[in-house]
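SAMPLE LOG
Freezer: B-3
Tube label: C17
Construct: single chain, 449 aa
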Amino acid sequence: MILSRYERMVAKRYLLPGRGEGFIFLVASISLVAVMLGVAALIIVMSVMNGFRAELFDKIVGLNGHAVVQGYGGRLSDWRDILKETRATQGVTQASPLIEQPLLATHEGRVEAILVRGMEMQEILANDGIAPKVVTGDINLLKRNKGIDAVPLVPEGDELNEDGELINPTEFASAGEDVQYIAIGSRLATNLGVAAGQNITIINPAGRTTPFGTVPREISYQVAAIFEIGIYDYDKAFVVMPMEDAQILLLLGDDIGMIEVTTDDPDNVNAILSPLLPRIGDKGLIIDWKSMNASLFEALAVERVAMFVVLSIIVLVAVFNILSSLIMLVRAKTRDIAILRTMGASRKSLLRIFMTVGVLIGAAGIVAGLILGFVFLYFRQSVVNFIQFVTGQNLWDPEIRFLTELPSRTDPLEVVAIIALALLFSFLATLYPAFKAASTDPVQVLRYE
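STRUCTURE (predicted):
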């Protein structure tokens, strides 16, 4: 919208308060603040929602991959051939053997449910969700485990099956090293009251069979490192150990539980892995990240759309203030408009003037909202901590929120959409007052002047 020189001058005068027009200026200022708060709220909420989804995706998928080839009954036999074929599948960037099993851990009378996670040593050190997240201890101590060389002591009367497992397992001896190391989550360490260098006992209910029933299998491990992934459910349960140690603990022999798969396109993981289905046959099934976390990510998607719609209504309410302030301005400037019309001002000129005034108020509110939104996002955790300190309430409970800190990730396309939406609402709010001003009849207004 290109304005002439006199149109710019008139629009500028109408934007500034004149004598006796302080109330109109106050309403216009409230309109600006309302648009600012609406835009800031949209940017803050959408950025936090995006950050929440991205952090969950990065951490959950970073630990579990984009999909898993899981064996029936929790055991995958002949897994090396399947692993080789998986790695050869087009679109697969990484495939690793994995063991996961819920068990119990004890330390000085405290008992906690855990999730034992057996991984190849190079995968433990290369995993961005584990090795870089160590807060105390040394995860490299896991390299000293000799589980791969552990040989069963076969007391008289015990026998080995065809997989080399003890039919009635009793105890194991390690070749040259008695200490077995593990890494555990920070919340689990807190709940058990254990520190790096101390021992915990892991209990496997599938133990030695006796005439009186099954005796649970208990093995002591030294905590080499404590890590903090940032997802509460993982930090309170994960126990990471080399895969060979997990096989010994769980009496799996050479079997594993699943193969973790990472692809170059997480959204199309099913299409990428579909050629692998005939090769797996009846040995197992493929579960992708969408199925493993379907309810969580679907809830986030619905909530994201709902929040955008609700906060857009806030911006719509804010621009109604622009509408009311322009209506008041037109009524206050009726005589001036009539004089402009008699001096030759066209209806289009008056339309442009009042539309410019309304859009400028909205644009100023949008710019202020962008600044406020980004400042809040930059200091978001400090703001949360301050509110918690003032109110004495825990506003960000990791047990409920999954993540330990308030996340944020701003999408530039969403910011552009928010700006366009606010500008559109501001423009629409100017139409009625502008047409009202343009339709002013100077004869009727100036008849008694």
